[in-house]
Target: Glycosyltransferase
Amino acid sequence: MEDAIVLYPSPGRGHLISMVELGKLILRNHPSFSITILILSEPNTNTNSTAPNYVAGSTTKYITTVNSTTPSISFHHLPPISEVPLSTSSFVELSYSIPRFNNQNLHQILKTISQTSKPKAFIIDFFCDAAFEVATNLDIPTYYFFTSGANLPEPWKDRTSKEYQYSLNVAAHMAKSNGLLVNTFDLLETKPIKAISGGLCVPDRPTPPIFCIGPLISDSNQDVEDYECLNWLNSQPSRSVVFLCFGSLGLFSAKQLKEIAVGLENSGQRFLWVLRNPPPDNEKDPNLDELLPKGFLERTKEKGFVVKKWAPQVAVLRHDSVGGFVTHCGWNSVLEAVWCGVPMVGWPLYAEQRLNRVVLVEEVKLALGLNESEDGLVSAAELEKRVKELMDSEVGTEVRERVSGLRDEAVTAVKEGGSSHVALAKLAELWRQN
Ligand SMILES: *[C@@H]1O[C@H](CO)[C@@H](O)[C@H](O)[C@H]1NC(C)=O
Ligand SMILES: *[C@@H]1O[C@H](CO)[C@@H](O)[C@H](O)[C@H]1NC(C)=O
Model:
């Protein structure tokens, strides 16, 4: 019987893509395994539901591409659940509860897979924690894959919240799991990794092994289309452009967008800005004439380029003309910036991003921080100051040099004999032995 690895990602872009990349990585290095990836669907909610979109950022195109280029990965769509007894407006709560409603389907699928192959590992996102008991009841070794850093996520801060309860469950299950996989590399997060593997997080039993197998970077969009913004970058001087992009959930008010525009213009720096419409119409194309200050596009046309909604982030970061990155500090964005050696200004918006910023700015010093005012607004003057500092100051140069050094370490980590490469080999060995 074939040795099967089953992956169970949370369907948001940031989570799903890293999990699929993990599947590709396993296959590249250990092609004897077969990989099955389970895909959760958007639930069929009734029209009065206040629940937010569950599947954040479309991944359909990405999945289709991987499916056609990597035949040894098979995707299995779980049916959408029809009755969602939820009135939650919390994205985190929804992310934890939808997999729970899918447990019966999951049980069936895992049993079916077990009839034709030997499941050596079931690797789940922490949001899919509800699956832990299903898999352990079937005696399938279960691992957690952290698509964020080895840090603590946001919900830990409020002990009365439902999210906190879910997180406690995750922690209890993780301690009993067969191992933890993290999309990071040893030298990026030396301290937290040491703390976890040293047993500090699991006082009453042995800590499961931790495998830092990153950075996993997806640049599959790169050769699919010819992007206008990449052509524009071709005409800019080396390392002269600051890139602003805030992830699949990062949205700003109209007021904040104006402040950004003024700050960029006053900074005098070249910029490439991915702009999304303010909520609630954030899926619509933004109307730039309405959102930007009068005459902004005309005045900045020599120096700036505004992209509506989306840009191929890795291809942009890798471009020689890009010299800085204003980011929401989402973990994938951080890894991509490190991978491409681009220094950052950290502007965290949600989830564990605030914590990422603290680590990035104060601990590993790969980013400059932005100061928000009390109402959460970042003023034009503050953005102007930080962007100038990043692109054109001694402090900026120091950050750039550190990122560049860490970039080399990241490349080394995933090469033959590097820490992440070795970690994956150990994991595969473990699976073969079981
Ligand atoms: C993947 O490819 C197979 C074979 O070409 C096809 O039958 C299947 O529907 C595809 N699945 C997805 C999710 O695109
Ligand atoms: C951030 O703002 C506060 C209050 O305005 C100020 O005291 C502090 O120095 C600022 N920090 C930085 C890094 O500029």
The chain has a mean pLDDT of 89. Residues 394-414 form the longest helix (21 residues).
